[in-house]
Design a protein that fits this description.
The protein has about 325 residues and is an alpha/beta fold. The chain has a domain of about 210 residues: 3-Layer(aba) Sandwich (Rossmann fold). It contains 13 helices and eight strands. Strands 1-2-4-3-5-6-7-8 form an eight-stranded mixed beta sheet, with helices on both faces. The two termini are about 25 Å apart. The relative contact order is 0.14. Pfam families: Abhydrolase_1 (PF00561). This is AB hydrolase-1 domain-containing protein. Keywords: Hydrolase, Signal.
């Protein structure tokens, strides 16, 4: 009986990750990549599994300030600000055209500079086109994918949202440009981004988030950076078949944690991943587009259990 109890205890311990690990200190750093200063947050020890947190629009690594401490006791965490976002350098968009290829180049360059050779990618919103571009250029560096409201399928975009991105790319009229500038303004950031999905519980959304983002959108040049990325976004839709082919070929271990109350990147986009990665782990959360702001603890638990099972599968030492 004692032996049976100990066997069951051992099985239970290996089934899910242990609770209550104290966080590591988060450090706030800069690295020079191709002559530009790229800001990143780093926590945890380098020899551990590395998780790279890729932020969305109109955010920065600041959006992961609650998730990082929940993970850093077990993992090595890197959360960069893209070129043109947050505390990273922001070359003048009148001379430097911003695109997702550009952002991916600098994130990949940062990881190379930091000698990070193997990592798990957490991709949210803009993070998906940045991340998939990195993977297509170097598929061997990926350990696993974590996807949170980051599209790779047309299923995840309503027809009106698809039309929005198509028009942003093809219509260069002054009227359309004014609309895109409006999308980067305070009213849109507050009400159509952060508070849109949490109208019944606005207290779940930290006002520091939108204040932080708006601080970095105070000038026309800052806003033009994001406008150029919105204009480039339709190219991602055209590249979806390439990303899907990558998933089918490499079958990366994949965790999907998706805020199902998101009306922009809808839940069908999460389910669509299962067509190409049928063994992916899918969790639809009672949250919106910024699920990591609403449900950081729940997301951290899913990540921890996913990474724990990945370590066991790969015969890596499990966390103590």
């Amino acid at each position: 009986m004692v032996l049976l109890f100990m066997t069951l205890l051992s099985f239970t311990a290996n089934a899910t990750a242990p609770e209550a690990v104290l966080p590591s200190k988060t450090y706030y750093k800069f690295a020079t990549v191709e002559g530009k200063r790229i800001f990143y947050r780093e926590a945890g020890q380098h020899p551990k599994q590395t998780i790279v947190l890729l932020h969305g629009y109109p955010s920065s690594s600041h959006s992961y300030r609650e998730l990082i401490p929940l993970l850093s006791g077990r993992y090595h965490i890197i959360a960069p600000d893209y070129l043109g976002s947050g505390y990273s350098d922001r070359p003048d968009p009148s001379t430097q055209k911003y695109s997702f290829n550009l952002l991916a180049t600098y994130v990949a360059g940062l990881l190379e500079t930091l000698n990070v050779q193997r990592y798990t990618l957490y991709m949210q919103d803009f993070g998906a086109p940045v991340g998939f571009r990195m993977l297509l250029n170097n598929s061997q560096e990926l350990e696993a994918l974590i996807i949170q409201n980051g599209n790779a399928y047309l299923d995840g975009l309503t027809p009106s949202r698809q039309a929005f991105f198509k028009t942003a790319k093809e219509d260069n009229s002054t009227l359309q440009l004014d609309k895109l500038y409006g999308f980067t303004g305070q009213q849109a950031i507050v009400n159509k981004q952060y508070l849109r999905d949490v109208q019944s519980a606005p207290e779940t959304m930290n006002p520091d988030s939108r204040s932080h983002d708006l601080h970095f959108l105070h000038s026309d040049k800052d806003r033009l950076i994001q406008v150029q990325l919105l204009q480039d976004y339709y190219n991602n839709l055209l590249d979806y078949p390439l990303w899907q082919a990558y998933l089918r070929r490499y079958q990366p271990p994949t965790l999907i944690v998706w805020g199902q109350n998101d009306p922009a990147f809808i839940a069908d986009g999460a389910k669509a991943y299962l067509r190409d990665v049928p063994n992916a782990e899918l969790h639809l959360l009672d949250a919106g587009h910024f699920a990591v702001e609403e449900k950081p603890v729940e997301i951290a638990k899913h990540i921890t259990n996913f990474m724990h099972k990945l370590r066991a599968k790969n015969n890596m030492p499990l966390e103590q």
